[in-house]
Amino acid sequence: MAMMTQADGQWLDRALQFAGLTWTYPAYEDLFVRNGWQLSGRDGEPVILEMEIWPPPGEEREEGWHLWIGNHPGCEEEGTEVACAHPGCREDRGVLMPLAYGAFEVTDPGGEPLPPEEVWEFDAFTGWRWRPEATEDDWASAFRAAEELLRARLGEPVSRPPDEALDAERGVVWEYGDSSVTLFEGAELLHYGQYDWICVDVRPRGTP
């Protein structure tokens, strides 16, 4: 297999900033602005997209990290400045940060194996570690390393499985404030399971 990894504490802490949110849009926007992650609108106002890979394709990715971001947080009835527990107002909220990608089998349309380096867009992985000769033991070690980093920051996990929507093969869940933090591995979503990934997912507790 082959791997791309970047699970160090600095990158992981970017995602964990979301765990301290009150899950209102003003708090969410402020986090992006404080980190300089926002886009700018026509009048200079901060713009944060929804249901996108972040930064958006075509934006500068000098460090290679990226998030999958969900819908804007807030209450659909009372306004985006209100954090509420309505199931519909928490649906598809949160962020997901990939920590590692693994290619166990990469094939062309005819089923012939392809070297992962012919498929992956390396310009989007600046700052990642490319490991073309990685083994399944290396993959398991990457998961354990991320779990140790999260335990050091969040303490002991809770005894419940990852959210079904993550399609996780295995995972570990923490609760922090009003957030659920999940480290998991499974099939990567965009490429129909052709790759595996290790991710940390941060979302409001109780989010379907």
From TrEMBL:
The protein's name: Uncharacterized protein
